[in-house]
Amino acid sequence: MIIEYIRYKIERNQHKSFECAYNKAQVFLKKSPHCLGWKFSHCVEDPNSYTLRIEWNSLDEHLKGISLKPRVQIFLPRGTTLLNNIEEMCHYEVTIRDEKR
Q: Would you put residue 33 in left (φ > 0), alpha (ψ -120 to 50) or beta?
């Protein structure tokens, strides 16, 4: 499993429109056979900071799936404002897992 973290910096006057844009764009994640789940979070200490955490079955399938799926053509126009505000986007491999899961 691969976990992708995307950090956004969003000005306070754009919070509502940003959350609305992401709410519409998440349709892509729901339909992706490679997405295992996600969490979209707003930082308490830094109100202009948001983080998206996405669990993918593998990096290879995630990256190939994004480039080959026609759904991406639907996602990217909606996600353009999302893409313009990214501060960091990284993929992490799980090395230690919570035994309670």
A: alpha
